[in-house]
Amino acid sequence: MEYSYQKEIEEAIKNFCLMDDEYMTAFFEDNIECTELVLKIILNIDLKVKSVKTQYGIKNLQGRSIRLDIYAESADGKKFNIEIQRQDKGAGVKRARYNSSILDANLILPGENFDDLPETYIIFITENDVLKLNEPIYFIERSIIGKNKLFNDGTHIVYVNNSIRDDTPLGKLMHDFICKEPDEMNYEILAERSKGFKYMEEGEPKMSKVMDDFRKKVTERVTKEVIKKEHQKMAIKLVKKKFSLEDIAEITELPLEEVKMIATENFA
């Protein structure tokens, strides 16, 4: 990594929060303590998390795959899918239904009893109030209409509204999910994990492989972004010097359509 990119890389890492997919993926990967804390606060139940995976891939019978942001299993066999969504369209009610169904379809083998299906929780943490009822959290359960009685099939869907960050345990957690600065976080476990990503220098002995891989990925992405910006600046200069758009695309390695857009925006 060239020194000229260091500032941009550190700035990118500094500005990440847990609502950002790239950061969230690395942050929760194999991290039982942090996942356990999040689940306990959201569900208000006592549990022990046994395993955690991020970007966990599952396929349906037609071969369509889906990646779960966080997939966790508790010691008593419950399964949890946590989805972090900044865009409302990624947290629609039918997305929740689909995640729940595909999780079920992969939890039982041929010949096994349906009664052995474990409890499942599909949890969406959304930046906005997707369900628009001004509540901090929504619990969705199937019920028997007209009887005021739950169906009790073991499936649970939960929406957490990140826009409400009050002084409750959940509100404090939502603050931590949007917080960029570890020292301003409420929960020490999350803050310490965050410091590991944001403050430790590359190659420091205490840095875990997950943290090291995360920084390498950010370095690669930011480096590409910096190079692309330099190529865009070069394209502007070449357009000004009357180079052909095709030659500019070849010199800067930018797509021809992007070069045309640059020419239009700057010299139309």
Chart the SSEs and their pairings.
Layout: H1 6-14, H2 21-28, H3 32-43, E1 49-59, E2 65-74, E3 79-85, H4 93-105, E4 120-126, E5 137-140, E6 143-144, E7 149-150, E8 155-161, H5 169-178, H6 188-198, H7 209-240, H8 245-252, H9 256-267
Parallel strand pairs: 3-4, 4-8
Antiparallel strand pairs: 1-2, 2-3, 5-8, 6-7
What is the structure about, briefly put?
This protein has 268 residues and is α/β, with parallel strands linked by helices. It has 2 domains: 1-16 and 206-268, no CATH class; 17-179, no CATH class.
Describe the 3D structure.
This protein has 9 helices and 8 strands. Helix 8 packs across helix 9. It is elongated and about 75 Å long. It has 268 residues and is of the alpha/beta class. 25% of the residues are buried. It folds into 2 domains: 1-16 and 206-268, no CATH class; 17-179, no CATH class.
Question: What keyword list fits this structure?
Answer:
268 residues; alpha/beta; two-stranded antiparallel sheet; 9 helices; elongated
Counted up, domains total: 2
- Given the helix and strand composition, which structural class is it? alpha/beta
Strand order, sheet with most strands = 1-2-3-4-8-5
Tertiary shape: elongated
Main β-sheet, in a few words?
6 strands, mixed
Whole-number mean pLDDT = 90
Number of strands: 8
Roughly what fraction of the amino acids lie in strands?
15-25%
Individual helix count: 9
Give the helix proportion (percent range).
40-55%
Task: Detail the poorly predicted runs.
Answer: 202-207
Name the helix and strand elements from N-terminus to C-terminus, one letter apiece: HHHEEEHEEEEEHHHHH
Termini distance? 37 Å
**Backbone CA Rg:** 23 Å
